[in-house]
Amino acid sequence: MEAVLFDFHGTLAQIEDPVDGILAASTACGVTLDPVRATGLADRLVAAGWVGGPLPARVPPHLAEVWATRDLSAAAHRAAYTGLAATVTLDVDGLAEALYHRMTQVEGWQPFADTAPTLRALRDAGVPVAVVSNIGFDIRPMFKAWGLADLVGAWLLSYEVGMCKPDPEIFRAACTALGVDPRHALMVGDTPADAGAVAVGCTALVLPAAPPGGMNGLGTVLDLVGVS
Question: Is the CB of residue 15 less than 8 Å from the CB of residue 109?
């Protein structure tokens, strides 16, 4: 393997626990919630389709279009997730927008414990890295805040490139950006969409779910590319 492509959410970083997010976002709105109430709101928010939880069982008709295109447009991404949050009775004015804002900031995410060591080991071994993410906002500031931005050679963010995984072209574009034949690249993710990279000849590694800040099995990547 001559290059590694990484997914972002669930692979290199995890969104914060929804209860923590609601407590912080409500405080930003000038309201202090007790943990029991926050937990109830978080359960309903996740059921509605918040990031980090399962896909919504039902998307309201008025949100169908922005939901379908959420990863191709920053505006659609915001409208989709604030719209889903607004279907929950949150009882705090401005909470849906505050939650979305927090999701786009470094405070709302945690890199996995093995993210930095893995990226640094790849850099030291001369193995180039790209981040390939279905997302509707810029994640580069997060990597900068974590001291990891210089370890990424290319950013293929769906809302910028107009393609979403598992479209083979987004993986092909990532390999082109790194100057590597797809047959010599490893795609690392946590969903079947990431495994779509095999359509262009990449090898795919799909990792299991891990909690925010924990280990995510990224050491396997180093084994696969032969980096000690």
Answer: yes
Q: How far apart, in whole angstroms, are the C-alpha atoms of residue 204 and residue 207?
A: 10
Q: Which domains does the chain have, with CATH numbers?
A: 3-14+109-225 (3.40.50.1000), 16-108 (no CATH)
3-state secondary structure of 70: coil
| Beta strands at 109-111 and 185-189: parallel, antiparallel or unpaired | unpaired
Q: What is the pLDDT of residues 166-225, one digit of tens each?
A: 999 999 999 999 999 999 999 999 999 999 999 999 999 999 988 888 999 999 999 999
Query: 157 — phi, psi (to 5°)?
Result: -100, 125
CA dihedral 12, 59, 199, 130 (to 10 degrees): -30
> Could you tell me which residues are beta bridge partners of residue 185?
3
CA dist 78 and 71 (Å) reads 10
Other C-beta atoms closer than 10 Å to the C-beta of 191 total 16
Distance CA 51, CA 46 (A): 8
Torsion of CA 22, 140, 82, 6, to 10 degrees: -90
Convert the pLDDT of each residue in 156-168 to its tens digit. 999 999 999 999 9
Give the separation between CA 121 and CA 182, rounded to whole angstroms.
21
